[in-house]
Design goal:
252 residues, alpha/beta, Rossmann fold, 7-stranded parallel beta sheet, globular
Length: 252
């Protein structure tokens, strides 16, 4: 079992989906968790309660990460409650359809702000803290859409492709400070964000037909990849995009 005892992790978008699975798995490994949410305070409270039930420590942090000012505060708020942040996982994100012929400026800005701008802001806040200790992990969540594109979701694909470029840029920039920066790129995963597609039998069959393993991923499987990148098993890994997609996109 990978151990994170004595570590403090901040997980954004942790009230549901991949973020929730990551917060719970990191807590099981021994980390104290900052559970970020935007609107689902009840879901975040349930995650924090589950962590406390297993003997861990957790706080909930509400913030709208589309606003730069809000995003800059959540690292400091976590550290005031739990201590210096060792690991940041940026899991918060949105996935909204918008054909380019109908996309509005607000459609574009909302997706880029939530998925990309906030990740860069939080990474900067975390790095300012981590550099004092010359140690830390910044972990981003991208997507297969950022690798191959996605029709009618160009803004989403652009934001996730930006996450990959951000990963590689910050890995080189922050390595001299002892900070490792990596990324996980999931394919289709059973989360609240994808349920509208996966609950439709015809759409679900079409999705599964694109995946060599023949099934959709579980949030815990993405969390496991993130746990590896947060652990002492990955001390010589930085700038990596770890694909967790059942073989749907074969690159890397």
């Amino acid at each position: 079992m990978i151990k994170l005892e004595g570590k403090v992790a901040l997980v954004t978008g942790a009230s549901k989906g991949i973020g929730k699975a990551t917060a719970l798995l990191f807590a099981k490994a021994g980390a104290s968790i900052g559970v970020h949410y935007r609107t689902d305070s009840s879901g975040a409270a349930q995650v924090a309660a589950a962590i406390e039930d297993m003997g861990g420590k957790a706080i909930t942090i509400g913030a709208d990460l589309a606003r730069w000012g809000d995003a800059t505060t959540i690292v400091a708020r976590t550290e005031r409650a739990l201590g210096p942040v060792d690991i940041v996982v940026t899991s918060a994100g949105i996935w909204e359809s918008a054909p380019i012929t109908e996309m509005t400026e607000s459609d574009w800005d909302r997706t880029i702000d939530v998925n990309l701008k906030c990740a860069a802001c939080i990474a900067g806040s975390a790095a300012r803290s981590m550099r004092r200790r010359r140690s830390g992990r910044i972990l981003f969540v991208s997507s297969t859409a950022g690798q191959r594109g996605e029709a009618e979701h160009a803004h989403y694909a652009a934001s996730k492709g930006g996450i990959i470029a951000l990963t590689k840029s910050l890995a080189a920039e922050l390595a001299p400070l002892g900070i490792l920066v990596n990324c996980v790129a999931p394919g289709w995963v059973e989360t609240p964000m994808t349920e509208s597609v996966l609950q439709d039998p015809e759409s679900s069959r079409a999705v599964r037909a694109t995946i060599p393993l023949g099934r959709v991923g579980r949030p815990e499987e993405i969390a496991g990849a993130l746990l590896f990148l947060a652990s002492d098993l990955s001390t010589f890994v930085t700038g990596e995009v770890l694909n967790v997609n059942g073989g749907a996109v074969l690159c890397g």
